[in-house]
Amino acid sequence: MKVAVIGAGVIGITTAYELATLGHQVSVFERNGAAAEECSFANTGIASVGYAAPWARPGMVKHVLAHLWQRDTPLRISSPSMADWRWLWQMRKACNPTTFARNRGSMLRLAEYSSHRMRTLTDTLSLEHERSKGLMLLLRTERDIKLMQDSLQVMRDAGLSFKTLSAEEARGIEPALNPETAMAQAIHFPEDEVGNCRQFTLLLKSEAESLGVEFHFNSGVLPLSSAQPKTIRTTHQDMGEKFDAVVVCAGLASAQLLRPLGLRIPLAAVHGYAISAAVREPLDAPRSGVIDEQYKVAISRLGQRVRVSGGSEIGGNAKRHDPNSVKTLYRVLDNWFPGAARTQDNVQVWKGSRPMLPDGPPLVGASGVSGVWLNLGHGASGWALACGSARVVADSINGKSPDIDLQGLGLERLHLQR
């Protein structure tokens, strides 16, 4: 079949590659001038099965409200639109224990499959990207421990491997952790990975090109037409190119592309920040990845750099940096790994807009419109879910039942109607 993939981030590239391995003629359309220029550019690097979880969870609303006006709040709400308020209200409704357990289970199932697929691709294709093994959640207080219990129970029920550690045991795995920073407990996921998402994406793009995938950069796609949903147009004067199937992997732009088809996708831009700096002293830097659960800040080791990510923000200007959000990243880094990175010069500061659905899981699979497929809304877990999402979409287009159950990952859970 002749298939169009809209978007060349890690989701779009993995999708194009998987389709090409099945013998399809694939064209990728990307509005930027290169692959991995938006959310895949400088994300956390954490490809975690254990941490691929919905924001919407029991206790989350109280947790956010408790920190909302603090200097180091994990979530900032800045000049939200009515759509942002509706999204927040939908997220609040999804915080009940039953909905959380269902959504957490769906994401966990996809993340486990995705982790296996990522390792298979990395090994069989010899993709040499920066990576290290292991992830640790750092819990500062007893309240943090309490908030984690529902999520940990879902992981236990799924048979996921993790260990609960004392502060002393945690510092045995990550010796550079500052002993003066209070830690009530840590959760260690020994099989999780930290990896360079952008490197992986660009390497896989080359593999896709070798299979015949064509890339069209600086080619923004117009919203799909209800009369001809499988026709791709890049300008209003363009008569369009017809395809047998279209896969929408365009991040935040996906909602607008699909709207003429009668699909109302409740995507919100949850802006996130990252700072990347050279390692100052290897013994003072993390060996792999840690996440400060209270402030939702991740600290990752990527080769000879340290990346600190977090500072979620709803509303506001996607291009304007909030100084307090950036300061929080520096402060949390200094809390846990003082002196680890050269933060005085040549620091890369980045802000990206993560496309997130209010209840957490992405939309993966059929759209309800013949020939139009969805692979979108992965939020902060795009790197962890990309390879699995791509494979199940490719299999579905190919008429094969995916290797995992897609229940809870489709449009039906959002009660959307055409």
Textual characterization of the structure:
The protein is an alpha/beta fold. The chain has a single domain (2-414), classed as FAD/NAD(P)-binding domain, CATH 3.50.50.60. The protein is 32% helix and 24% strand. It is built from ten helices and 18 strands. It has helices spanning 10-21, 60-67, 82-93, 97-124, 142-157, 167-173, 197-210, 254-258, 323-336, 382-397, and strands at 2-6, 25-29, 46-47, 75-78, 131-139, 163-165, 185-195, 214-216, 231-232, 241-242, 245-248, 268-278, 289-292, 297-302, 305-315, 348-356, 363-366, 372-376. Strands 3, 4, 5, 6, 7, 12, 13, 14, 15 and 16 form a ten-stranded mixed sheet that branches. A hairpin with an 8-residue loop joins strand 9 and strand 10 (241-242). The mean pLDDT is 92.
- What is the share of helical residues? 25-40%
Ranges where pLDDT stays below 50 over 5 or more residues in a row are none
Mean of pLDDT: 92
CATH topology name: FAD/NAD(P)-binding domain
Structural class: alpha/beta
Secondary-structure element order, as H and E?
Answer: EHEEHEHHEHEHEHEEEEHEEEEHEEEH
CATH level-1 class: Alpha Beta
If helices are DSSP runs of H or I spanning 4 or more residues, what is the number of helices? Answer: 10
As a percent range, the share of strand residues is: 15-25%
Radius of gyration, Cα only, in angstroms?
Answer: 21 Å
How many DSSP-defined strands? 18
Largest sheet: 10 strands, mixed
N-end to C-end Cα span: 26 Å
